[in-house]
């Protein structure tokens, strides 16, 4: 919600385009950081290969007005991945790892906002 807290419309013309581009780049940087933190947590519990973080031009990611990621948890056609993803324990481990990565990102973001003095909970 913090990314959408300023609901003023952007100016028309060149300045608006530049501001929108800066805003989009900030979302992409934050998305990359979020994805890295989630990937670090998931790779610690997932038996499969760590394929790292990649950016893609999916509309669901490029039009989001906040950090956004897609998490690929494995391949059902891979014997090891499929067994892990089919088990209740594997599903719980994946869900917890994703949640842990998100919490790590939120804590990091809160510290950054508090340090910059832009109005986070820690800055009050």
Describe the 3D structure.
- This protein has 4 helices and no strands.
- With 124 residues, it is mainly alpha-helical.
- Mean pLDDT is 85; it is low at 120-124.
What is the number of helices? 4
SS-based structural class? mainly alpha
SSE run? HHHH
Strands, total number: 0
Coarse morphology: elongated
Give the arrangement of secondary structure elements:
Elements: H1 14-43, H2 59-62, H3 79-86, H4 88-116
Helix pairs in contact: 1-4, 3-4
What does this entry show, briefly?
By secondary structure, the chain is mainly alpha-helical. 57% of the residues lie in helices and 0% in strands.
List key phrases describing it.
124 residues; mainly alpha; 0% strand; elongated; disordered C terminus
């Amino acid at each position: 919600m913090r990314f959408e807290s300023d609901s003023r419309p952007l100016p028309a013309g060149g300045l608006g385009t530049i501001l929108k581009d800066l805003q989009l780049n900030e979302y992409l940087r934050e998305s990359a950081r979020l994805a890295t933190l989630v990937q670090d947590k998931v790779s610690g519990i997932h038996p499969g290969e760590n394929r790292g973080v990649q950016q893609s031009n999916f509309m669901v990611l490029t039009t989001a007005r906040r950090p956004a990621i897609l998490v690929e948890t494995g391949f059902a056609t891979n014997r090891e991945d499929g067994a892990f993803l089919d088990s209740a324990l594997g599903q719980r481990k994946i869900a917890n790892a994703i949640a842990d990565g998100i919490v790590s990102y939120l804590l990091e973001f809160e510290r950054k906002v508090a340090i910059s003095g832009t109005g986070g909970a820690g800055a009050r």
